[in-house]
């Protein structure tokens, strides 16, 4: 788990229940996408993050396309386990017009994340960075990984604080259903 204190991420335990509904969430057990719970669409906060070249992107840049926003870090064991499986699913989702944004919250940004992705063989996800963790703060999230499903209108329709089994049977179909 992690805490956000004074704008920085620090390792530690948090004293409140994570912000997701699955029974497995409390113990960090990964869930399949078909177990993600949709909720009525709600507005997303303004979010920004940088790409490998330092160009700033905003979530608003992707309105019109369904988006999977995935927050992770190299120092987060569940993130490290989960990210390669999301990377393997991403090309199929992208063929259907779904944008997969994997945003690292590592403070060192590209200097640390790019070599890490190369080392674990993740080549299908363009790296994005938010070394200030402003995205996690804006989403009121304190734990990683976090996945937010965003519809074509730029509204949140589902969220998972904790790992997802991206390679579970029916994952792609469940995500298409959730994203509309």
Can you identify the CATH class?
Alpha Beta
**Count of DSSP H/I helices:** 4
Number of strands: 10
Order of helices and strands: EEEEEEHEHEHEEH
- Characterize the overall form: globular
Amount of beta strand: 25-35%
The number of domains is 1
Radius of gyration: 15 Å
In the CATH hierarchy, the third-tier topology is known as Glutaredoxin
**Order of strands, widest sheet:** 3-10-9-6-7-8-4-5
The stretches of 5 or more residues where confidence is low (pLDDT under 50) are 1-27
CATH homolog superfamily = Glutaredoxin
The CATH architecture can be named as: 3-Layer(aba) Sandwich
Tell me, rounded to a whole number, the average pLDDT: 85
Q: Roughly what percent helix?
A: 10-25%
- SS-based structural class? alpha+beta
How would a textbook summarize the main sheet? 8 strands, mixed
Q: Between the first and last Cα atoms, what is the distance in angstroms?
A: 31 Å
Overall description:
It is a single chain. Helices cover 24% and strands 27% of the residues. The protein is of the alpha+beta class and 180 residues long. It has a single domain, classed as Glutaredoxin, CATH 3.40.30.10. The strands form two sheets. It has an eight-stranded mixed beta sheet. The protein has a two-stranded antiparallel ribbon with strand order 1-2.
Give me a quick take on this structure.
The protein is α+β, with helices and mostly antiparallel strands and 180 residues long. It has helices at residues 77-95, 110-120, 134-138, 171-179; strands at 2-5, 8-11, 38-43, 48-51, 56-58, 67-72, 99-104, 127-129, 146-150, 155-161.
């Amino acid at each position: 788990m992690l805490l956000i204190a004074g704008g920085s991420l620090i390792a530690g335990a948090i004293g409140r229940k994570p912000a997701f509904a699955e029974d497995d969430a409390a113990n960090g057990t990964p869930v399949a996408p078909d177990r993600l719970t949709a909720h009525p669409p709600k507005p997303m906060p303004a979010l920004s993050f940088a790409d490998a070249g330092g160009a700033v992107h905003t979530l608003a840049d992707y309105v019109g396309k369904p988006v999977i926003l995935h927050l992770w870090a190299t120092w987060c064991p569940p993130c490290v386990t989960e990210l390669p499986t999301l990377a393997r699913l991403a090309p199929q989702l992208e063929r259907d017009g779904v944008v997969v944004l994997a945003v690292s919250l590592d403070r060192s940004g590209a200097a640390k994340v790019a070599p890490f992705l190369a080392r674990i063989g993740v080549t299908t996800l363009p790296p994005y960075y938010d070394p200030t963790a402003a995205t996690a703060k804006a989403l009121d999230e304190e734990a990683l990984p976090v996945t937010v499903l965003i519809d074509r209108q730029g509204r949140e329709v589902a969220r998972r604080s904790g790992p997802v089994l991206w390679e579970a049977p029916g994952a792609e179909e469940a995500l298409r259903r959730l994203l509309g």
